[in-house]
Amino acid sequence: MSEHDDPYAPPPVPPPPVSYGGPDAMPSTDPLRAPEPLVSGEPVPALAGALAAPPEARLGMDGGSLRMERVAEEIGAWLKTLASAAVYATLIVTFGFQVARVEGHSMAPTLGDQDRLIVNKLAYRIGDPHVGDIVMLYYPLVPEKSFVKRVIAAEGDQVRIVDGKVYRNDVLMDDSFVPPNYRSHDDWGPQVIPEGYYFVMGDHRNNSSDSRHWGFVPKKYIIGRVQLRWWPVQGAKVF
């Protein structure tokens, strides 16, 4: 007779239930059982943070190198831009335009002391000065200095000054821009302007050192035409 046929034998003990981590599953109380993994559609927080981080952060030390390379590229681009600007500025100053400052009152009231000017240097590289132009020139007696004067006569013209009145080719010139108290009463000439030279005067006729005192100006000494007074701002003017 087998033990299963013994009516006095104890009933068999059923095995403990197996939990699969379902929503209604209870945690196991068996100390020998390992905790069951929870299955979810959400990523593990640490992994989620790593995936959300920028590439540089995921690259670790390589990310720092990448940032340094980008900074170096930006600095290089800025340096190229500054170098180009310096070259262009040099070309403009050398061949195109120049900033100048008036010192003194020889061109008053047209220009005042400390006025800031833009001088067009290209104008006389492709053309000649004209009568009436306001020009910047090297002082013929001391070429290291520069003056600002008005062209009164060009090569081939005859100039004569009588009691401060200027005659060009025996025609009285319009000098209405000269106030009465700025006029002179001197006499000069007549003289014919040699080829390649110009006769210049300051608008402040009784307070100007000009061709009446130190002679004619060679064209090569004329730097450029005064194009603009930009300072003071309220007195800005294009000539």
Strand content: 25-35%
* Biggest sheet descriptor: 8 strands, antiparallel
Look at the structure and name the CATH superfamily of one domain: Umud Fragment, subunit A
Q: What kind of oligomer do you see?
A: single chain
N to C succession of SSEs: HHHEEEEEEEEEHEEE
What's the architecture of one domain, going by CATH?
Ribbon
Please tally the β strands and state the result. Answer: 12
User: What is the CATH topology of one domain?
Assistant: Umud Fragment, subunit A
| Number of continuous helical runs | 4
Helix content: 10-25%
Structure description:
- With 239 residues, this protein is α+β, with helices and mostly antiparallel strands.
- The chain has a domain of 137 residues: Umud Fragment, subunit A.
- It has 4 helices and 12 strands; from the N terminus they run H-H-H-E-E-E-E-E-E-E-E-E-H-E-E-E.
- Strand 11 and strand 12 form a beta hairpin.
- The protein starts with 44 loop residues before the first helix and ends with a strand.
- About 11% of the residues have low confidence.
